[in-house]
Each structure stands twice: as structure tokens, then as C-alpha cells.
Design a protein that fits this description.
This protein has 521 residues and is of the alpha/beta class. The chain is built from 19 helices and 15 strands. The protein folds into three domains: 242 residues, Glucose-6-phosphate isomerase like protein, domain 1 (Rossmann fold); 179 residues, Glucose-6-phosphate isomerase like protein, domain 1 (Rossmann fold, 3-Layer(aba) Sandwich), CATH 3.40.50; 43 residues. The longest helix has 22 residues. The termini are far apart. Bound molecules: 6-O-phosphono-beta-D-fructofuranose (F6P). The site of 6-O-phosphono-beta-D-fructofuranose has 14 residues, from loops. 6-O-phosphono-beta-D-fructofuranose binds next to loops.
């Protein structure tokens, strides 16, 4: 990449000029002129089909977007990430989630440890533990205690693969809101409950507080090993009282929000079986291979990333919606929300300089058709334009075929309506011009392999965008600050202390809490 700031480079300037030309271009007109457009702007990788023809783009747009990708050395940066370079610059770490699915040079060592050996050894450990737990009839319920990446990935995957579940129930406790663990434990029995304490750091406030409650609840029956830990802080897990063979290791090169492929995925393996977990890894590996080997103009993560750049940076659209037409993907929008917004919600570049362009959009979403009856009105006629990703499955995992056809039809109908708008004559309130962009990701079936491809597609898309914006997608310093401040405020409230070193708004709120508590104690 040239040393010029991003907004000064030729690719960026070209796109700014090109955007002016595209402002009044209608997608439906482009389809009329070129019926081959849909074919041209679609890609397929095994059971995953991406249609990106309903975007305000021409061939020239795509060429220019890919020129920008080249200006930003996307291929070089991709290869650096995949080969274990320290792409997480502020923490001086690689980001090797791809290695967790076996996509790694067999000779790569980090801190004198061979990465592939570590991955394979951990997989064996996951296999053994998941088989043991699944066949242990004493355990009817598994409770994963973890938050952020130690929760959203495994939870959304377990929900997505519900149709492949075994006999045990799975629960996820994440929140420091005591009602979360209280409600969860209400229906369970200590004797038949197994806890997985998932925390890379084994210091996270929410997780440790909930794990302590679980430990007290289990009491002396823990002799039967009711606790598993997944962590990079093995000594803390031992101190907590977990035996060595029940501690699954993580490493610092595994980012929290990229960790479901690691031992953090144990709940998935227990819930659905180790073979299903392996299929998930295989699907992701397939997308890794596609990402590494495919020229940029046919590369799905790159195409999706550059479309996002087009809207975020040149059209100034600040929101991106994700609508999976599959009830079992109801946690997927929340998962992508963390992946995208914790990775790319940054306003400083890799060198710590403030940047002048937009980065991560606000990501939100809900399953279709529920979302249609909630916020889609705004997507169709609102004053903001919000590009949408529709995710749908050709085959159902149930036998209600008409239901499924209706579900699928609704997904297609919504993207059509967003594009074409409505031209009902003489009824002004029913008239809207459409031209609202969307992608459709059609998968053959909701299974572990396809889901693995889908998750890796989003991971790589977000990585590419981070490269364009020249930010570090693998740290989260903003989150760290809040954690520190919360600790101080807890001390003040718990000990009824007077506060000096804080702003008057926070002081006022704390006073209000203390006054109420003192009056009611
Ligand atoms: O939300 C911040 C964060 O650091 C995430 O990145 C991480 O996944 C989560 O907290 C939980 O951290 P840990 O796994 O160390 O408990």
C-alpha cells in the first residue's frame, strides 16, 4: 500500500467520483437492460450460493472496489494472517482461528509449540470429553458459564444445530444479572448438572461470579467432577478446584470472538456430538481455502466486504441488517454483531492515529419472518437506507414442507420488494421507490458443514474490512475501560463510600442508589 492516507489514495478518490455517477441509478433499470446481471453477480461454493445482484453496483463499481482492495494489499494481509504474522498489533499476537480448523502450515510454531500439534491434541481432548459426557447418563443438563466470545459463538451454534442435538439439555449463563443464573438453576438438580466454565482469561467478572454461585450450588458432590474449564489461564482453573483432565487449554493467539472453533466449542461437541463439531470445522476450512485461493473478483468474503465498504464509506449508510430465514439461527445476528462491532468498531488506525472515515456499521437483525412484522417497515420506507443480508435454506430440517416454501418465498419476496419498491397508482402512501440493497445467501440445508462455511464467510469479510480501514480487528480496548470503571463503582456502592474521583453525573446516580438503599435497608 502507498503511504498515503486511505482517503487520499487513487482507488478511494475514484470511488468517490463513481458514487456521484451512481446516485440516481436504479437497480430495476439495470436488470431491465441486462437480464444476465443476476448470473454475473452471483457466486457459489459447494452448498452456499451468494446472490449480490441486488446492489447499487455496475461492473465498473466492482472493478473500482477491487482496485481499492488491491491498493490496500488485501492478498498480502490475508496471507499474513493465515501464516501467523502478528496481525493483532496492539497485543503483539497472531490471530490464528483458521488454524483451529486445521488450515495452517504444519511447521508453524508459536512460543516453541507446534500449532497443528496443539490443535490436534485439543481436538482429541474435546472428542474424549464430549463422548464421556454424552454417554454419562447421570448428566441430564449442561450449563456453559461464559460471556462475549465464550458465549455467543457456542450458544448461536448450539441453537443453529438444535436439530442434531442428543439427549442432554444445554443452558448458557452469561449475564452478571443474578436472575440469569438463578432462573437457570431453578429447574436443575446439582446431581445431574455439569458446568463448563468458559473463560480465556479466567478473570472475567461475570463468568467468575456465576461460576462461584454454581460451585456453592453443587457443594460437596463436586467429587464427581461437575466442572470443566476452558481457559488459557490453567493455574486459575486449578485454583478454582478443577482437575487437570477437565481443563481444556486455550492460547493467546485465539481471539475471544473467534474462539468457537477451539475448546470453547466443547458445548457444541457435547450437545451435537463430536462428528457434527468436526463437520463445522470442515465447512469453515472450506471457506478458508476459498478465501486464500480465489481471485479477489470471485472471492465471497472479499466481495461482501467491499460491498460493505461501498455503502459505509461512499453512501454513508451506517447500519447493516442481518435476517436469517431460519428460526434456529435466532442467535446469529447477535453473534455477528459482536464479531463485526467488537472487531471493527474502532476510530484509530494500527499506529494509533485517529482516522477520518467511517468504520463498523451498526449491525442488528432478527429472524424472518418475525422481523417482517417488526422493523421491516423501516427498511422499506424509512428515511435511512439499510443494506440487508438475507440468509435462507433450500431444504428444511422438518417435514412441514408448505411452511418451508412459505418461509423461503418470504425471504425472496422481501429482497424483491426492497429493490423494486411499490408503484401503486393514485395511492401516495403506498408508493415507495425501492432501490434498497440486499444480498441473499442461499444454503442447501442448515447443517454443521454449511454453517461452518457461513460463519467463516463473515469472519473473513470482517477481516477484509479491517484491512481496508487499516485498523486492528483483534483487540477491544474500549471494552477493557468499562470493566475497570465498573470495578471502582462496585466498591463504592458495596462499601457505601463517598466518591470523589468521578464525574458529577455518575456521582449523582451513585448518590441516588445509595440514598435508596440506605432508606430501605
Ligand atoms: O467483551 C470483551 C471480551 O474480552 C471478549 O472479547 C471476550 O470474548 C469476553 O470478554 C470474555 O472473555 P473471557 O473469555 O476471558 O472470559
Amino acid at each position: 500500500m502507498s503511504n498515503k492516507p486511505l482517503t487520499e489514495c487513487k482507488g478511494w478518490k475514484d470511488l468517490e467520483n463513481h458514487h456521484k455517477k451512481m446516485e440516481n441509478v436504479y437497480m430495476r433499470d439495470m436488470f431491465t437492460k441486462n437480464p444476465a446481471r443476476a448470473k454475473h453477480f452471483s457466486l457459489k461454493l459447494d452448498g452456499l450460493f451468494l446472490d449480490y445482484s441486488k446492489h447499487i453496483i455496475t461492473e465498473e463499481t466492482m472493478e473500482k472496489l477491487l482496485c481499492l482492495a488491491n491498493d490496500c494489499d488485501i492478498e498480502k494481509k490475508r496471507d499474513e494472517m493465515l501464516s501467523g504474522a502478528h496481525v493483532n498489533t496492539s497485543e503483539n499476537q497472531p490471530a490464528l482461528h483458521t488454524a483451529l480448523r486445521g488450515f495452517v502450515d504444519k511447521d508453524l510454531n508459536i512460543d516453541n509449540e507446534n500449532i497443528l500439534d496443539f490443535v490436534n491434541k485439543t481436538l482429541k481432548h474435546i472428542e474424549k470429553l464430549s463422548n464421556d459426557i454424552r454417554s454419562n447418563e447421570n448428566f441430564t443438563d449442561i450449563v456453559n458459564i461464559g460471556i462475549g466470545g465464550s458465549y455467543l459463538g457456542p450458544h448461536s451454534v448450539c441453537e443453529a444445530l438444535k436439530d442434531y442435538a442428543g439427549n442432554q439439555n444445554i443452558h448458557f449463563v452469561s449475564n452478571i444479572d443474578g436472575s440469569h443464573i438463578t432462573q437457570t438453576l431453578k429447574s436443575l438438580k446439582p446431581k445431574s448438572t455439569l458446568f463448563i466454565v468458559s473463560s480465556k482469561s479466567f478473570t472475567t467478572l461475570e463468568t467468575m461470579a456465576n461460576a462461584k454461585i454454581a460451585k456453592d450450588w453443587i457443594g460437596s458432590i463436586n467429587e464427581n467432577n461437575h466442572f470443566i474449564a476452558i481457559t488459557a489461564n490453567e493455574s486459575a482453573a486449578r485454583e478454582f478446584g478443577i482437575k487437570d483432565s477437565y481443563i481444556l487449554p486455550m492460547r493467546n493467539w485465539i481471539g475471544g470472538r473467534y474462539s468457537l472453533w477451539s475448546a470453547i466449542g466443547l458445548p457444541i461437541a457435547i450437545y451435537t456430538g463430536f462428528d457434527v463439531f468436526k463437520d463445522l470445522l470442515a465447512g469453515a476450512r472450506n471457506m478458508d481455502k476459498h478465501f486464500q485461493e480465489t481471485p479477489l473478483d470471485k472471492n465471497m468474503p472479499v466481495i461482501m466486504a467491499m460491498l460493505g465498504i461501498w455503502y459505509r464509506n461512499f453512501w454513508n449508510y451506517n447500519t447493516h441488517a442481518i435476517s436469517p430465514y431460519a428460526q434456529n439461527l435466532h442467535k446469529f445476528p447477535a453473534y455477528v454483531q459482536q464479531l463485526d462491532m467488537e472487531s471493527n468498531g474502532k476510530n484509530i488506525d494500527k499506529k494509533g492515529h485517529e482516522i477520518s472515515y467511517n468504520t463498523s456499521p451498526v449491525v442488528f437483525g432478527e429472524t424472518g419472518t418475525n422481523a417482517q412484522h417488526a422493523f421491516f417497515q423501516m427498511l422499506h420506507q424509512g428515511s435511512d437506507i439499510i443494506p440487508v443480508d438475507f440468509i435462507a435454506f433450500i431444504n428444511a430440517n422438518h417435514t412441514l414442507n408448505t411452511h418451508h416454501t412459505q418461509l423461503l418465498s418470504n425471504a425472496l419476496a422481501q429482497s424483491q420488494a426492497l429493490m423494486n419498491g411499490s408503484t401503486v397508482k393514485n395511492e401516495m402512501h403506498r408508493k415507495f421507490k425501492g432501490n434498497r440493497p440486499s444480498s441473499t445467501i442461499l444454503l442447501n440445508k442448515l447443517d454443521a458443514y454449511n454453517l461452518g462455511m457461513l460463519l467463516a464467510l463473515y469472519e473473513h469479510k470482517i477481516f477484509v474490512q479491517g484491512c481496508i480501514w487499516n485498523i486492528n480487528s483483534f483487540d477491544q480496548w474500549g471494552v477493557e475501560l468499562g470493566k475497570e470503571l465498573a470495578k471502582n463503582i462496585t466498591n463504592i456502592i458495596e462499601n457505601n463510600e463517598t466518591i470523589q474521583e468521578t464525574d458529577s453525573s455518575t456521582q449523582n446516580l451513585i448518590h441516588h442508589i445509595q440514598a435508596y438503599k440506605n432508606k430501605n435497608s
